[in-house]
Specification:
Number of domains of chain B: 2
Strand content of chain A: under 5%
Strand content of chain B: under 5%
Order of helices and strands of chain A: HHHHHHHHHH
Number of helices of chain A: 10
Distance between the termini of chain B: 48 Å
Order of helices and strands of chain B: HHHHHHHHHHH
Radius of gyration of chain A: 22 Å
Number of helices of chain B: 11
Number of strands of chain B: 0
Shape of chain B: globular
Oligomer: heterodimer
Chain lengths: 244, 263
């Protein structure tokens, strides 16, 4: 009984990975015409991926979703806007500031700015620039979750804020230094990690289903969208301030 | 032995990702809320599953898929491979990169289907909408958007056209679609842009972008290698709203009185 449930879950994880296996096999054999290197390693890795994905999804249902919603319910029932907003900001800031993808992008951005002669080439100047960039992205994600939670409470329509954000992004694109635009645009995508996303989604949906007059589908989503948009604005803003 | 080391490093870094969340929840629980959760053991067990599951998932990707995918991205953008399909080596045209576009589209689609964040959001959306938004419907629609976005991003790198023009046009399409799309789908569509690019998609796509910018003549990796992730975040918004609009339109045509639901 238990075994058949586990097998069913493993099978569904395998289905999730099937497209990648198909694409890689297709290109390796038909286009590049090379045998797959290290077959055994690849197979073993594939098994780990299937097992890991199955366990992750099980953990989502048991742990991450319930805890996100429980926090949302408890904070909403407490009725203190201050604590709710502080929770939202800290969640965004603390999960982003140490994100490895962000650290890598910030270091890369510092290198480019150094080569472009925008900042001093010395190591301490590069580090300082990368640190500032990381802080501004983490701050912007915290602020984004905070604004998103405010929006759910007040019932603002999500599209006014997002389209307003698009207009700001475009205006800043025209005045920001060229070297920072590509990184700014990509920064939006790297900020939300795999553990943060389910938690933030559960927080939004939990809040929207607790607060009277909000619809979980219409109002509960949108937090991740803010967390992808605001870093773009902040990274360009950082570039503008640093490079004058 | 080396693998055990890799796995424990991945596990450690996953733990470090979770640490701020754990601290935040405990602090709020003890100092602000002061009320115990129901089923605390189940929550903790679920948290442990998430950490171990994600660590295994990442270690497996690192071992199996990333090396292969990265080699492929490099090989396909290699001038030697592209020249081999034609006799005379003259100026390379954007049309000579046929396989690269196909690879970009297919790998974008495939990695998006396997993206754990998207699985999580699709699961939640299906639960909240009581099943009217199907998990696979949403995931496939988002994957088609990523697939198109990355191919277009590759075209941009090869032609060297400015990034912001594409993004500007994309934003305009999103804005117009927002006016006409069913209200219930808008927030979810915006969110689906942000979740597509995390653990699986970013490493492969970044390699492809930087590899292309390094091999295509006249491109500077620093300036042209970026931007693929931005494309992969923008186009799913368009396809998700587009699909919802299409469903609304086709339902309305069949039953003009009944209110339709998206996806």
């Amino acid at each position: 009984m238990v075994l058949s449930i586990i097998l069913k879950k493993l099978k569904s994880s395998f289905t999730d990975l099937l497209p990648i296996i198909a694409v890689i096999t297709f290109f390796q054999i038909l286009v590049l015409r090379q045998p797959l290197p290290q077959m055994a390693e690849v197979l073993f890795g594939g098994l780990l991926v299937v097992a890991g994905l199955t366990l992750f999804i099980q953990g989502l249902e048991m742990g991450l979703f319930p805890i996100g919603e429980a926090m949302a319910h408890a904070l909403a029932r407490k009725g203190s806007l201050f604590w709710l907003l502080l929770f939202a900001f800290t969640l965004g800031f603390s999960t982003t500031v140490a994100e490895p993808a962000l650290i890598a992008v910030a270091a890369e951005a510092a290198k480019i700015a150094g080569q472009g002669g925008l900042i001093d080439q010395s190591q301490s100047a590069l580090n300082q620039y990368a640190f500032g960039l990381r802080m501004s992205v983490a701050f912007s994600v915290g602020l984004a979750i905070l604004i998103g939670v405010m929006r759910i409470i007040l019932g603002w329509p999500v599209h006014y804020l997002i389209i307003g954000g698009y207009v700001v992004v475009m205006l800043m694109t025209f005045i920001a230094p060229k070297e920072i635009i590509g990184i700014a645009y990509d920064a939006g995508g790297v900020t939300t990690s795999t553990i943060t996303v389910p938690l933030v989604a559960a927080l939004g949906v939990g809040l929207a289903s607790t607060i009277r007059g909000r619809n979980p589908l219409v109002d509960g989503f949108g937090l991740i969208a803010f967390a992808s948009l605001l870093p773009m604005i902040f990274v360009m803003g950082y570039g503008l301030i640093i490079f004058g | 032995m080396e693998f055990i080391y890799d796995l424990s490093m991945t596990l450690l870094s996953t733990c470090r990702d979770v640490l701020p969340i754990v601290v935040l929840i405990i602090v709020f629980q003890l100092l602000v809320l002061r009320k115990p959760f129901t089923h605390p053991r189940r929550l903790v067990l679920g948290g442990i599953y998430v950490v171990i599951g994600l660590a295994l998932f990442l270690a497996g990707l690192e071992k199996a898929l990333f090396p292969l995918g990265k080699i492929m991205a490099t090989q396909l953008s290699d001038p030697a491979f592209i020249h081999a399909t034609q006799k005379a080596v003259t100026q390379l045209d954007w049309k000579d990169y046929g396989w690269v576009y196909l690879f970009a589209a297919m790998i974008g689609f495939a990695t998006t289907i396997a993206e754990p964040s998207l699985i999580a959001v699709a699961y939640k959306a299906s639960m909240v909408s009581a099943g009217t938004i199907s998990q696979w419907g949403l995931r496939i629609t988002v994957a088609v958007g990523v697939s198109f976005g990355i191919s277009l991003g590759v075209f941009r790198i090869i032609t060297g056209t400015p990034l912001h023009i594409y993004i500007l046009i994309g934003y305009m399409i999103v804005t117009v679609q927002t006016i006409f799309a069913p209200k219930s789908i808008i927030a979810l569509a915006y969110d689906s842009g942000g979740v597509t690019t995390s653990t699986v998609t970013v490493p492969l796509v970044a390699t492809l972008g930087l590899g292309l910018a390094a091999t295509v003549p006249g491109r500077n990796p620093a300036l042209d290698g970026f931007g693929l992730i931005a494309f992969a975040s923008l186009f799913p918004i368009i396809t998700v709203m587009g699909y919802a609009q299409f469903m609304q339109w086709s339902t309305q045509r069949k039953k003009p009185t009944e209110k339709s639901n998206a996806l």
